[in-house]
Amino acid sequence: MLLRLLGNLLRRAPATRKPPPLAADPGVAALLQRAKTCYAAGEMSEAIALCQQALAQEPGNAYARLTLVRARMPGEIYRQVLRRIHEHVRPRTYVEIGVDKGDTIAMACPETLALGIDPAPKIERPLTARTRIFAETSDDFFARHDLGMELGGLPVELAFIDGLHRFEFALRDFINLERHCSRHATILVHDCYPLDAATAMRERMYDFWSGDVWKLVVCLKKYRPDLSIHTIGCAPTGLAVIRNLDPASALLPERLREICDEFIPMPFAAIESRKAELLNLFPNEWSKVRALLSPA
Ligand SMILES: C[S@@+](CC[C@H](N)C(=O)[O-])C[C@H]1O[C@@H](n2cnc3c(N)ncnc32)[C@H](O)[C@@H]1O
Question: What is residue 21's predicted lDDT score, i.e. its pLDDT?
Answer without folding.
Answer: 82
